[in-house]
Design brief:
InterPro entries: Aldo-Keto_reductase, NAD(P)_OxRdtase_dom_sf, NADP_OxRdtase_dom. Keywords: Oxidoreductase. It holds the Pfam family Aldo_ket_red. The structure is a single chain. The N and C termini lie far apart (40 Å). The radius of gyration is 19 Å and the shape is globular. The strands form three sheets. An eight-stranded parallel beta barrel has the order 3-4-5-8-9-10-11-12, surrounded by four helices. The chain has eleven helices and twelve strands. Strand 1 and strand 2 form a beta hairpin. It has one domain: NADP-dependent oxidoreductase domain (TIM Barrel). Helix 3 packs across helix 4, helix 5 packs parallel to helix 6 and helix 7 packs across helix 8. It is α/β, with parallel strands linked by helices.
Length: 337
């Protein structure tokens, strides 16, 4: 490993977005979908992230039915507002039993959802506001136009998007500058390289990459016995049966490379994403300070041409077995159409 100040240089999200630390913190797992989490440890992890220099914190108003925003409000209370940027997703509709029942990107939903998020988070603005998915009933121009009104009113600083395809990116950017596209990107999830990433770069839109460890699958810590009650990964195709066997075998090939470099599998995987361009900011979903520290160590991993070639040979494009979501969720992804 080598350590240089340049590895921690701020990155700018697109042509018009904010400058952020080269890693962002994804807060979803602190409240939802990955099984039980320790609230006190989650808050301590947010504090540790801020102390390490992380500025971008990503959440969604539907994570834990609003609980994630309330948790972040507790964690950020008393922290200078200039020390962090909040990226907030909205639009996912949920029933009282927690089921996902659709998406609402209507102008009224944009403004109502934002009002509730501002109140839960205890802030007067969010730095990046984005629909979690494309609403097929509402032209993206209307959704982005409504957020643009909130930018004009001072409640939002920048407009982001999530999991949309190249055409939708173009249509959105024609209405208002877009800072960044939040989308899954990892060693075993590289679909954006074909059309979406080139289009984002053409339009001057940055990428905040989530799932850089494929929800823990390529962290080097996941085993066939991992998982807990309430963990949605139990229904994810990549974590099931022979798919899991195949994918964990890929991880072992990465482990051999990581060990030769004196780093962990997670650090290697995160560093690979970060190295794909200065316009890409990986989001790490650490719920504990231990995992956060490991992720921060990825900033000290230097990858050269031989490393990239070795990684590509070990995990070529399309090597993973299984889709990244189940069929129902895949159907909602404009980015997959």
């Amino acid at each position: 490993m080598t350590t240089t100040d340049s590895t921690r240089a701020l990155r700018t999200l697109g042509r018009t977005g904010p400058q952020v630390f080269p890693l962002g913190l994804g807060a979803m797992g602190m409240s939802a979908l990955y099984g039980p989490a320790d609230r006190d440890e989650s808050i301590a992890t947010v504090h540790a992230a801020l102390d390490a220099g992380i500025t971008l914190i990503d959440t969604g108003d539907f994570y834990g039915m609003g609980d994630n925003e309330l948790l972040l409000a507790d964690a950020l209370r008393g922290v200078d507002r200039d020390r962090y940027q909040l990226s907030v997703k909205f639009g996912a509709q949920r029933s009282p039993d927690g089921a996902f029942i659709g998406f609402d990107g209507s102008p009224a939903a944009v403004k109502t959802s934002l009002a509730y998020s501002l109140r839960r988070l205890g802030v007067d603005h969010v730095d990046i506001y984005r629909p979690a998915r494309l609403d097929p009933r509402v032209p993206i121009e209307e959704t982005v136009g409504a957020i643009a009104e909130m930018v004009q009113a001072g409640y939002v600083r920048h407009i982001g998007l999530s999991e949309v395809g190249a055409d939708s990116l173009r249509r959105a950017a024609a209405v208002h500058p877009v800072s960044d596209l939040q989308i899954e990107y990892a060693l075993i999830t590289r679909g954006i390289e074909n059309e979406i990433l080139p289009t984002a770069r053409e339009l001057g839109i940055g990428v905040t990459a989530y799932g850089v460890l494929s929800r823990g699958l390529i962290s080097g810590h996941w085993t066939k016995d991992s998982g807990a009650a309430g963990d949605f990964r139990s229904r994810s195709p990549r974590f099931q049966g022979t798919n899991l066997d195949h994918n964990l075998a890929l991880v072992e090939t990465l482990r051999a490379i990581a060990e030769r470099k004196g780093v962990t599998v997670a650090q290697l995987a995160i560093a690979w994403v970060a190295a794909q361009g200065a316009d890409i900011v990986p989001l790490v979903g650490a719920r504990r300070r231990e995992r956060l520290a490991e992720s921060l160590g990825s900033l000290d991993v230097a990858l050269g041409a031989e490393d990239f070639a070795e990684i590509e040979k070990a995990v070529p494009v399309g090597a993973a077995a299984g889709d990244r979501y189940d069929a129902g969720q895949m159907a909602h992804l404009d980015s997959e159409k």
